[in-house]
Amino acid sequence: MGRILVDPDDTMTRTRRGFSLAEVIVAMTILTTSLLGFAAIAQKFTRSNSDVLSRTMGSEIATARIEQIKAARPYATLVATYNNVNESWTGTNAWSGFSRRTLVTRTGPTATADYVTVTVIVSGRALNPVIRRTTSIAAF
């Protein structure tokens, strides 16, 4: 029998090597879509953390004022000392960009009621809505 000669350049007998252009385009599209999705998630996560940090600092500012007023003596001068006080922080202070407004009203004195209502409103650093803390302090 005779031998069959195979031409190495024959397209029918060559094995395929590498990727086609269509496969590369599909892979790049899938990879790009995945990376853009991860970038969007990372951006939302960063923004969420920043918002939480601002809200935490704003809450700390309001609580600090309320605790300062609770510790103040004498009771009769709380309204005169703290009502309608506005403060803002600038510069490199940790609280820079925030502003705080304190409202103090007194109910009484009567035979049944004598207390002070303290409301602290903190705004700034894109806080939306503003932070509002209220407490009541009884006469002492």
How are the secondary structure elements laid out?
Elements: H1 21-71, H2 78-82, E1 85-88, E2 98-107, E3 115-124, E4 131-138
Structural account:
This protein has helices at residues 21-71, 78-82; strands spanning 85-88, 98-107, 115-124, 131-138. With 140 residues, the protein is an alpha+beta fold. It has one domain (21-138). It has a 4-stranded antiparallel sheet.
Question: End-to-end distance, in Å?
Answer: 120 Å
As for the number of domains, it is 1
Radius of gyration based on Cα positions: 34 Å
Regarding quaternary structure, what we see is single chain
Work out the number of β strands: 4
**Poorly predicted residue ranges:** none
How much strand?
Answer: 15-25%
Q: Widest sheet: strand order?
A: 1-2-3-4
Assign the structural class, choosing from mainly alpha, mainly beta, alpha/beta, alpha+beta, or little secondary structure.
Answer: alpha+beta
Q: What is the succession of H and E elements?
A: HHEEEE
Overall average residue pLDDT: 84
The description of the largest β-sheet is: 4 strands, antiparallel
Q: Total number of helical segments?
A: 2
- In which range does the helix fraction lie? 40-55%
What is the overall silhouette? rod-shaped
List keywords for this structure.
four-stranded antiparallel β-sheet, 4 strands, 2 helices, 140 residues
Describe what is shown at a glance:
The chain is of the alpha+beta class and 140 residues long.
